TrEMBL record:
It comes from Salipiger marinus. SUPFAM superfamilies: CO dehydrogenase flavoprotein C-terminal domain-like, FAD-binding/transporter-associated domain-like. Residues 1-177 form the FAD-binding PCMH-type domain. The keyword Flavoprotein applies. This is Carbon-monoxide dehydrogenase medium subunit. Keywords: FAD, Flavoprotein, Oxidoreductase. Pfam families: CO_deh_flav_C, FAD_binding_5. PROSITE patterns: FAD_PCMH (PS51387). It comes from the Bacteria. InterPro entries: CO_DH_flav_C (IPR005107), CO_DH_flav_C_dom_sf (IPR036683), Diverse_Substr_Oxidored (IPR051312), FAD-bd_PCMH (IPR016166), FAD-bd_PCMH-like_sf (IPR036318), FAD-bd_PCMH_sub1 (IPR016167), FAD-bd_PCMH_sub2 (IPR016169), Mopterin_DH_FAD-bd (IPR002346). The keyword Kinase does not apply. GO terms for molecular function: FAD binding; oxidoreductase activity.
Length: 277
């Protein structure tokens, strides 16, 4: 099946994109890498859309240092994140995550902003943003605003971006000396979305653990984080399994996903302990 007839306009900058969106009578959809949106349009999940192509807005691409943070433009492609030296040094969780995302062709087009705005509960970057304590930057008709990653993911494919708002980028704190960041997941085949996955960050102030593909949104597993801070891995596994309520679907049962979460936590801790040695 192919997408229904609709409109297309290429935005030259963010104000232009906002203007096109405001004039689209509710039919506007921002087009970034198109790797999720075009598939959805081809399946006719919506019809008569007006595509507002933001993919060539140069200001929204790239990675730079901003004091003790890295600022990542929303249009930065997955593949560029995977090979960027600043990311590898200061936010290695994101480099590590890229190898789990789809296939090379999709990673060459898909953007981090698109992945965050799309808010697939099985996607890696939303969970990374949570574990890192990222701040997301948005721009709309009334100005710019910052949104904590913890406030961004509202429901399946739903975020707290307002109607027409553009995600312009995100800031992640640079890893401190001795910080360790890992992602672990299980997928049926390489490149598939995860059956379940998690991101674990160990900082001097404590652990941050986010879990994805275990509920409608990625979430911080606070009970497990507290148990990890107390040095009790068995209690952390138990707490993690208790605080998630994973769905059953054609890929896996909820109870299998809950079991996997504990297995993945043990693997992640083994990896970060290995890094300490
Ligand atoms: C076969 C296949 C396998 C995949 N496997 C995985 C996987 O394992 N893990 C994973 O994480 N992803 C996976 N993806 C999705 C891929 O990572 C997408 O690239 C990503 O989810 C969306 O990014 P995009 O730039 O392509 O966004 P688009 O498809 O262009 O847009 C997606 C949605 O976000 C909105 N949007 C995009 N950018 C912005 C912005 N800056 N501001 C506001 N709204 C915006 C669009 O309007 C649209 O609603 C897969 C995709 C395919 C086709």
């Amino acid at each position: 099946m192919k997408a229904s007839a609709g409109g297309y306009a290429r935005a030259v900058d963010v104000p232009h994109a906002l203007e096109l969106m405001a004039g689209s009578a509710g039919a506007g959809r921002y087009l970034a890498g198109g790797q999720s949106l075009v598939a959805a349009l081809n399946m006719r999940l919506s019809e008569g859309d007006m595509l507002i192509d933001i993919s060539r807005i140069a200001d929204l691409s790239g990675i730079r240092e901003d004091g003790d943070h890295l600022r990542i433009g929303a249009l930065t492609r997955h593949a560029d994140i995977g090979r960027d030296a600043l990311i590898r040094t200061h936010a290695p969780l994101l480099s590590d995550a890229v190898r789990h995302i789809a296939h090379a062709a999709i990673r060459n087009r898909g953007t981090i902003g698109g992945a965050l705005a799309h808010a697939d509960p099985a996607a890696e970057f939303p969970a990374c943003a949570l574990a890192l304590g990222a701040t997301l930057h948005a721009q709309g008709g009334t100005g710019t605003r910052d949104i904590a990653a913890e406030e961004f993911f509202e429901d399946v494919f739903t975020t707290t971006l307002a109607e027409g708002e553009i995600l312009t980028g995100l800031s992640v704190p640079k890893a401190e000396a001795g910080e360790v960041q890992v992602i672990e997941e299980v997928a049926r085949r390489s490149g598939d979305y995860a059956l379940t996955g998690l991101c674990l960050v160990r900082r001097a102030a404590g652990h941050r653990l986010s879990i994805f593909s275990a509920g409608p949104v990625p979430m911080l597993a606070r009970g497990a984080m507290a148990a990890l801070d107390a040095g009790d891995l068995d209690a952390a596994v138990e707490a993690l399994r208790a605080e998630i309520d994973p769905p059953s679907d054609t890929q896996a049962s909820g109870s299998y996903r809950r079991h996997l979460a504990g297995v993945l936590l043990r693997r992640a801790v083994k990896r970060i302990e290995g890094d300490r040695a």
